[in-house]
């Protein structure tokens, strides 16, 4: 952790503003000295981080280095912002001594000197730990033991195998298939049973008959290319003593050539078990004929999806799933309860009930089930099982750390295996992973929010000029590829929309966050949970609460830079407590204050104190007024003022309140606010502005956005037709991929000139009357999701335009009407996967011709009370898997039931859900 913090701080010290600071006589030398000392220590910190768990002295030293780096960053940034506030409008771009008048340089210099002295002392102390030598010379006994525990042997086959038959069959088929993939990969998180599955395949009868020779090698985290290639060759050819001596004398290239030729001449199966990195594969690939016709195959297991892709982009990738409830119980019963049923039926039933309860904590992870069952197999009585149940999480996670009962008997917990994945992360991904500890258990984390938080925290850098949000999303993808994070939902463009952690991975995340004092969690959701006292200074604070709670400012909380609230409904805050929070935590960079009920419905003026703030979200917090002091937030990158309530009206103090926010990247306004009928001004230097939601404009005027060349998401509210109605606009916004146009405010028709100015959008939302749909819409070749709301009367020729959209996969139509019956013609909507029809009160008849919507998977019909029946053409859509009917008349619903006159239309659909049948107003 200290390595990550110091690396991030050093990146910040290379900022041009800090370079200016170094030129100042009374301060610059001290900053330069601190920077040099941190750079010196940086090379040793990875070793220190790895060693601190076993040495309290090193652990304390690491904590001191981390705090000193944070302190240096805080004091320098505070100084820079004090200078910036005294300057003229173009904030945070340059400064000179002329603007420093009134800033206490002596105090700043004294603070920096104190920190620099501390860093210098820490640097001197480091040498006594001999950190670098310990790891380089292989003297780290703990690390070596970890590696030895990961070595796998193909002849040792697990006697308890459950749920692998399907995966084994698939993998065997691909391995023995003529002209099949060169590489077959098994990819998944630690403990998922990848090696066990690989052994089932390796020993399968068809595999043994198909291949001539076999080699199994365990790569693990330290890969020596020559030694691994030598081991593979030796196993494939079963060398004579003379050949063994010859191999021992050969260099890597000669061994690789011999191995290459062997695989060309014979049918070989090579298993590379537990290969961690693409670099490891690159050390080995010279020994494999990847680009030539051969019947030899490679089976590899990995936690990193990138490895599989690197080895063979056309290879087959298999991702095992967690065990379901029945499979989990079968595996558990085989290990923990085998042969005990007949000895004492009463005890057996007691154990069975306890076992099923404990099994829920394993979440289908085979390793966790095996660990738990292996321990319980040694316990004979129900009381002993009940003792384990009371401390179930600790037994599964830590195993031998629990006491002396089973130390030295080979019993292991789960976290040591998962911890290997964490240790293998580069420093910037460690920070990104640890940040997930903020979020509650089973929380679906919005990726859009998460990536912005990472940027605001300074975890993401973009030296090549790449957009930081893209780098941030790539970091998430890498964590997914390493099986550290799981995908929740995907959006219309197939990008990850939400993510979450496996329960045991979340345990590891929280454990590591606490160990490194990365985050302190206060959880009032669980009344029985012990509220831990912070271990040193708290930099990040996650508060999960059912009531208004503000931690008092003390020595521990005085340096908080990230404060995220997670609240239940009806959490009310009075202004006094809120003002206290904004007054005391002046170093905050992130404030996520969502879902609160602020009694006076206003954001206090003290918000202007938080000049370090990068991320501010008061989404759904019933805020109805923001103060003019919000203009002080010159570092702000993300501002979210949205509300899910259509009745909330936000008072914005003046039109240029955002004009000093040069760092602004994302701004979300509620749909109703005081500035939506006027031009809201943004900083002319806010060139990185990417998101503007619910901004008021004239129907034909996008001139205010012409300089915002990085704009990606735009939501506009039309407040006037404007003078340029006939002229339209010649501005083309190449980067906008999401567009929302709302013209219902004034009852105006949708201005198509705005839509056609954004030719590369993949998401389009139109709220308002549609008077025409021209063929020009065909230029939106990337459009995958279209939402139409309150659209008036859509005619048949309008539908024919929509069904020709070349990439449309999702269509939502609500609160509108069709002037004639809705007809989906043959060949129409060729790629549509999801269709939702809601509140279409005039829709009576809907026809789907044979060959229409050939890829439709999900259909949702809600509150279309005049619709008489589902279309006959649904019977031809074989891809339809899910039909949801909500708030429809009883006679409509009864026709769809088994035996109903419309049942034949939907009998092939796997899931038909009918809810809230409409019986009229009661």
UniProtKB/TrEMBL annotation:
CDD domains per record: RX-CC_like
Coiled-coil ranges per UniProt: none
InterPro entries: Apaf_helical, Disease_R_plants, LRR_dom_sf, LRR_R13L4/SHOC2-like, NB-ARC, P-loop_NTPase, RX-like_CC, Rx_N
Location of the Disease resistance protein winged helix domain: 439-509
Keywords, sorted A to Z: Nucleotide-binding, Plant defense, Repeat
Domain Disease resistance R13L4/SHOC-2-like LRR: 559-885
Domain NB-ARC: 171-340
Domain Disease resistance N-terminal: 5-87
TM segment ranges: none
SUPFAM superfamilies named in the record: L domain-like, P-loop containing nucleoside triphosphate hydrolases
Pfam families: LRR_14 (PF23598), NB-ARC (PF00931), Rx_N (PF18052), WHD_DRP (PF23559)
PANTHER family xref list: DISEASE RESISTANCE PROTEIN RP, DISEASE RESISTANCE RPP8-LIKE PROTEIN 3-RELATED
Name of the protein in question: Disease resistance protein At1g50180
Species annotation: Prunus mume
Name of the coding gene: LOC103331509
């Amino acid at each position: 952790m200290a390595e990550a913090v110091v690396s991030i701080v050093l990146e910040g010290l290379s900022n041009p503003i800090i370079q200016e600071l170094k030129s100042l006589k009374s301060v610059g030398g001290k900053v330069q000295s601190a920077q040099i000392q941190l750079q010196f220590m940086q090379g040793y910190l990875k070793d220190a981080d790895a060693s601190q768990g076993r040495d309290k002295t090193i652990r304390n030293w690491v904590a001191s280095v981390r705090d000193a780096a944070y302190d240096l960053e805080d004091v320098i940034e505070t100084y820079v912002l004090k200078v910036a506030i005294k300057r003229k409008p173009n904030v945070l771009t340059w400064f000179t001594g002329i603007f420093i008048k009134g800033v206490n340089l002596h105090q700043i210099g004294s603070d920096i000197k104190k920190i620099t002295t501390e860093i210098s002392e820490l640097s001197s102390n480091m040498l006594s730990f001999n950190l670098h030598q310990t790891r380089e010379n292989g003297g780290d006994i703990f690390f070596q033991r970890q590696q030895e525990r990961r070595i796998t042997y193909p002849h040792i086959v697990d006697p308890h195998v459950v749920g692998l038959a399907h995966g084994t069959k698939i993998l065997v088929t691909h391995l023995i298939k003529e002209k099949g993939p060169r590489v077959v990969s098994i990819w998944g998180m630690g403990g998922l049973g990848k090696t066990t599955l690989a052994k089932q395949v390796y020993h399968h009868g068809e595999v043994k008959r198909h291949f001539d020779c076999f080699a199994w090698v365990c790569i693990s985290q330290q890969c020596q290319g020559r030694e691994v290639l030598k081991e593979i060759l030796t196993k494939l050819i079963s060398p004579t003593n003379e050949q063994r001596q010859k191999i021992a004398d050969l260099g890597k290239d000669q061994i690789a050539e011999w191995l290459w030729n062997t695989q060309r001449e014979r049918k070989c199966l090579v298993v590379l078990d537990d290969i961690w990195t693409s670099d490891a594969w690159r050390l080995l690939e010279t020994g494999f004929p990847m680009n030539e016709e051969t019947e030899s195959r490679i089976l590899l297991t990995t936690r990193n999806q990138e490895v599989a892709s690197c080895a063979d982009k056309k290879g087959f990738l298999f991702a095992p799933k967690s065990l379901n409830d029945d499979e989990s119980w079968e595996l558990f019963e085989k290990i923990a309860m085998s042969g005990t049923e007949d000895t004492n039926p009463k005890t057996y039933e007691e154990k069975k009930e306890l076992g099923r309860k404990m099994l829920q904590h394993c979440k289908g992870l085979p390793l966790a089930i095996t660990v738990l069952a292996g321990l319980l197999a040694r316990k004979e009585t129900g009381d002993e099982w009940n003792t384990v149940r009371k401390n179930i999480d600790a037994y599964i996670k830590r195993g031998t750390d629990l006491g002396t009962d089973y130390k030295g008997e080979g019993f292991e917990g789960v976290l040591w295996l998962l911890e290997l994945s964490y240790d293998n992360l580069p420093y910037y991904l460690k920070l990104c992973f640890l940040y997930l500890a903020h979020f509650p258990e089973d929380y679906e984390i919005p990726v859009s929010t998460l990536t912005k938080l990472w940027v605001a925290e300074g975890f993401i850098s973009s030296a090549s000029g790449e957009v930081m949000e893209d780098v941030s999303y790539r970091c998430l993808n890498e964590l997914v590829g390493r099986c550290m994070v799981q995908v929740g939902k995907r959006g219309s463009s197939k990008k990850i929309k939400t993510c979450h952690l496996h329960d045991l991975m979340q345990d590891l995340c929280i454990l590591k966050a606490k160990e490194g004092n990365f985050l302190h969690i206060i959880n009032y959701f669980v009344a029985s949970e012990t509220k831990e006292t912070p271990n040193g200074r708290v930099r990040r604070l996650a508060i999960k609460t059912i009531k208004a709670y503000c931690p008092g400012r003390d020595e521990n909380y005085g340096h908080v830079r990230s404060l995220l609230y997670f609240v239940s409904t009806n959490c009310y805050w009075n202004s006094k407590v809120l003002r206290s929070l904004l007054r005391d935590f002046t170093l905050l960079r992130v404030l996520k204050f969502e879902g609160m009920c602020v009694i006076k419905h206003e954001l206090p003026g003290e918000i202007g104190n938080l000049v370090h703030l990068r991320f501010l979200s008061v989404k759904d917090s019933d805020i109805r007024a923001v103060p003019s002091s919000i203009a002080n937030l010159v570092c702000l990158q993300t501002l979210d003022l949205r509300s899910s309530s259509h009745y909330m009206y936000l008072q914005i103090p003046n039109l240029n309140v955002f004009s000093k926010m040069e760092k602004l990247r994302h701004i979300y306004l509620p749909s109703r606010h005081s500035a939506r009928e006027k031009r809201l001004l943004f900083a002319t230097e806010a060139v990185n502005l990417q998101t503007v939601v619910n901004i008021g404009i004239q129907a034909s005027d996008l001139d205010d956005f012409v300089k915002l060349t990085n704009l990606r998401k735009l939501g506009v509210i039309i407040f006037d037709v404007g003078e340029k109605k006939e002229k339209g606009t010649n501005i083309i916004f190449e980067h906008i991929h999401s567009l929302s146009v709302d013209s219902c405010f004034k009852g105006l028709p949708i201005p198509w000139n705005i839509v056609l100015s954004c030719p590369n959008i993949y998401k389009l939302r139109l709220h308002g009357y549609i008077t025409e749909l021209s063929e020009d819409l065909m230029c939106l070749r990337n459009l995958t999701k279209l939402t139409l709301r309150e659209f008036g009367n859509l005619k048949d020729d309008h539908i024919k335009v929509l069904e020709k959209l070349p990439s449309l996969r999702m269509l939502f139509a609500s609160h509108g009407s069709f002037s004639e019956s809705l007809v989906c013609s043959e060949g129409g909507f060729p790629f549509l996967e999801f269709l939702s029809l809601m509140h279409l009160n005039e829709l009576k008849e809907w026809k789907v011709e044979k060959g229409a919507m050939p890829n439709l998977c999900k259909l949702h019909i809600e509150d279309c009370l005049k619709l008489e029946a589902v279309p006959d053409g649904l019977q031809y859509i074989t891809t339809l898997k899910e039909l949801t009917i909500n708030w429809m008349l009883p006679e409509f619903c009864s026709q769809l039931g088994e035996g109903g006159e419309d049942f034949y239309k939907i009998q092939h659909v796997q899931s038909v859900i009918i809810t809230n049948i409409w019986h009229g107003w009661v």
